[in-house]
């Protein structure tokens, strides 16, 4: 995020209701497979992180289920729209619930928001259940809330799992 | 369940095809657990996971729960994780350090080598009860050996030595370790544990398959090729995108330039297919230049030249291990049932190399071997499709004949495909399969010669 955006962001604090509305909308974009719109929620320098173990300290020296900078996140989203993404043939259907939203801190225009989620994924006659904690760093850029960082802690991060294609 | 005779098993593997039942029949799976996973040398872990006496970690060998430990004398032991009293799993933490192992049911306590140490209330047992009797120990796996830190076990009391089992493929392990400036590697960086609904054999069958990336990984190839490099990146995704683009090398390249080599006991390796000047080994990458400088200071220019001229992609050690030295990746196959498999994927650190190389190893793992990666998820989809497709009662035989009759001899006693996309390495695994299933190694070796 550039300095001008930070300055602008630092003067405004986000309310819990603002954050909750934002998270509900984000979940809806994902459930409706509007991945390009989801990608547009992220700042250019954002990272998206799904650790592979509970309490994982760093994405740099331990493997992650997903750890994308902006360029890789774009590639991930572009692949999701490819007609040749065979691991999404048929497409997954998902339903997410986001709740227990709390604001952890608000410093220098960065609002750290913690929430709980449940996601049901249905594909090829199998239903999977994922649950865990979202941690979002939210900022305000040109009056719109954007994600500067998103971490998804799955309760079963270290379990044997079938492939994960749809982002959380 | 169907009972299989020697003839049934033998005829199920033909020169260029195998019977569908080998992937779908629970009775075949039970035999495989007994005759392959119960006999063969199997990779169980790396010595860096049990550095000091008392260090241990749990693993699955076939479906058996085992604990790998280093005893008080420093010797490696692999024990069935089962109390000699009532059969409970004794060790419950995935890894750790212990002075002794204690079953929490009735307090039977074992030395690190599995011998019974103490039993509370032992007056209550019969008069001939003897803590020295092996019957009261945690059962040891009869053969545990390591090759340059890679720990293998065999549950057969006698048989081929580990060195004979590895044969020429030991050079792939050497390749991994030779690349470490300090001459040592360590397992690090966590683990991926992924699962699919299909047979365990499919996993190794895919890892040396040069014909599939161009099709199976099309979505990630296209997405990476269309991706602008101008978008902000802190370098995290760099390796991922370069690797995906490499998967899009022309089909003629896959066919003619990669190379596939196979060796006795079902082993094989795929040659390297990278020409991206920054991705793997290139003087155009400043990090790699630094690394070579460090390596040369320790080993000398000539030795480093020799080391870096070994360019292998995946090496498969049948039946449960695949690894690659260029990015220090290693996968272990765990059969769960005839139609369910779990694969554990690990990374290694080259000791003495720049730490950024290890971070690149992690980034590479995330994208190529990760459960949520843009690449491996398509492979898992293919295994699942095979798991479904094979249960359809259409074709009785699975064709593995690509390149058959054109395979050529290799100076180290193996066979290589004339073209890189030859299925020679699958045929080679099935010759090993037949050898194990019939308990007749000589027969398998003979069949391999005939198919040359």
TrEMBL record, chain A:
Pfam families: Ring_hydroxyl_B. GO terms for biological process: 3-phenylpropionate catabolic process. The keyword Oxidoreductase applies. The keyword Oxidoreductase applies. This is Uncharacterized protein. Keywords: Oxidoreductase. Gene3D superfamilies: 3.10.450.50. Belongs to the bacterial ring-hydroxylating dioxygenase beta subunit family. It comes from the Bacteria. InterPro entries: NTF2-like_dom_sf, Rng_hydr_dOase-bsu. The lineage of its organism: Bacteria, Pseudomonadati, Pseudomonadota, Alphaproteobacteria, Hyphomicrobiales. One of its GO terms (molecular function) is oxidoreductase activity. Coiled coil: none annotated.
TrEMBL record, chain B:
It comes from Pseudorhodoplanes sinuspersici. One of its GO terms (molecular function) is 2 iron, 2 sulfur cluster binding. Keywords: 2Fe-2S, Iron, Iron-sulfur, Metal-binding, Oxidoreductase. PANTHER family: 3-PHENYLPROPIONATE_CINNAMIC ACID DIOXYGENASE SUBUNIT ALPHA, CHOLINE MONOOXYGENASE, CHLOROPLASTIC. SUPFAM superfamilies: Bet v1-like, ISP domain. This is Uncharacterized protein. Pfam families: Rieske, Ring_hydroxyl_A. Belongs to the bacterial ring-hydroxylating dioxygenase alpha subunit family. The keyword Translocase does not apply. InterPro entries: Rieske_2Fe-2S (IPR017941), Rieske_2Fe-2S_sf (IPR036922), Ring_hydroxy_dOase_asu_C_dom (IPR015879), Rng_hydr_dOase-A (IPR001663).
């Amino acid at each position: 995020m550039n300095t001008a955006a930070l300055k602008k962001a630092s003067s405004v604090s986000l309310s819990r209701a603002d954050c909750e509305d934002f998270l509900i909308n984000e979940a809806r974009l994902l459930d409706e497979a509007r991945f390009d719109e989801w990608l547009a929620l992220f700042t250019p320098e954002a990272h998206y992180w799904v650790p592979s173990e509970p309490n994982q300290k760093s994405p740099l020296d331990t493997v992650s289920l997903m750890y994308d900078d902006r360029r890789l996140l774009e590639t991930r989203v572009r692949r999701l729209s490819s007609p040749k993404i065979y691991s999404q043939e048929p497409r997954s259907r998902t339903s997410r619930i986001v709740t227990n939203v709390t604001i952890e801190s608000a410093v220098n225009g960065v609002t750290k928001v913690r929430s709980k989620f449940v996601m049901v994924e249905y594909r090829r006659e199998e239903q999977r259940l994922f649950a865990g904690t979202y941690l979002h760093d939210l900022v305000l850029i040109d009056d719109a809330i954007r994600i500067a960082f998103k971490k998804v802690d799955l309760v079963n991060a270290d379990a044997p799992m079938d492939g994960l294609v749809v982002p959380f | 369940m169907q009972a299989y005779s020697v003839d049934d098993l033998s005829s199920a593997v033909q020169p260029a095809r195998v019977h569908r039942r080998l992937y779908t029949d629970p009775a075949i799976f039970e035999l495989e657990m007994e005759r392959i996973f119960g006999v063969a040398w199997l990779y169980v872990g790396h010595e860096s996971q049990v550095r000091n006496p008392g260090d241990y970690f749990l693993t699955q060998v076939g479906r058996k729960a085992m604990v790998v430990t280093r005893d008080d004398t420093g010797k490696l032991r692999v024990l069935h994780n089962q109390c000699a009293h009532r059969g409970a799993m004794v060790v419950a933490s995935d890894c750790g350090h212990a002075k002794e192992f204690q079953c929490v049911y009735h307090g039977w306590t074992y030395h690190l080598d599995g011998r019974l140490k103490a039993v509370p209330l032992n007056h209550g047992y019969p008069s001939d009860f003897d803590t020295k009797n092996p019957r009261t120990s945690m059962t040891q796996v009869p053969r545990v050996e390591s090759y340059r830190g890679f720990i293998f076990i065999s549950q057969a009391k006698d048989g081929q030595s580990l060195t004979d089992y590895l044969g020429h493929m030991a050079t792939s392990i050497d390749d991994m370790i030779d690349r470490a400036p300090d001459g040592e590697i360590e397992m690090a960086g966590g683990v991926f544990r992924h699962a699919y609904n299909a047979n365990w054999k499919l996993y190794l069958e895919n890892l040396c398959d040069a014909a599939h990336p161009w099709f199976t990984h099309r979505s990630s190839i296209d997405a990476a090729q269309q991706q602008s490099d101008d978008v902000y990146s802190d370098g995290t995704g760099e390796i991922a995108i370069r690797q995906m683009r490499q998967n899009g090398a022309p089909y003629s390249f896959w066919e003619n330039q990669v190379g596939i080599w196979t060796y006795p006991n079902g082993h094989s390796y795929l040659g390297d297919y990278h020409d991206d000047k920054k991705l793997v080994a290139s003087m155009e990458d400043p990090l790699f230049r630094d690394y070579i400088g460090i390596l040369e200071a320790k080993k000398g220019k000539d030795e480093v030249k020799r080391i870096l001229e070994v360019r292998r992609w995946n090496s498969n050690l049948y039946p449960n291990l695949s690894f690659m030295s260029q990015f220090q990746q290693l996968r272990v196959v765990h059969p769960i049932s005839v139609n369910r498999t779990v694969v554990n994927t690990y990374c290694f650190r080259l000791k003495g190399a720049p730490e950024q190389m290890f971070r690149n190893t992690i980034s590479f793992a995330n994208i190529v071997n990760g459960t949520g990666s843009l690449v491996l998820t398509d492979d898992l989809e293919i295994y699942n499709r095979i798991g479904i497709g094979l249960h359809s009662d259409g074709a009785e035989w699975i064709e593995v004949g690509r390149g058959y009759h054109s395979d050529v001899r290799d100076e180290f006693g193996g066979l290589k495909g004339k073209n890189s996309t030859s299925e020679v390495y699958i045929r080679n695994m099935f010759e090993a399969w037949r050898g194990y299933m019939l308990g007749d190694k000589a027969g398998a070796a003979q069949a391999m010669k005939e198919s040359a």
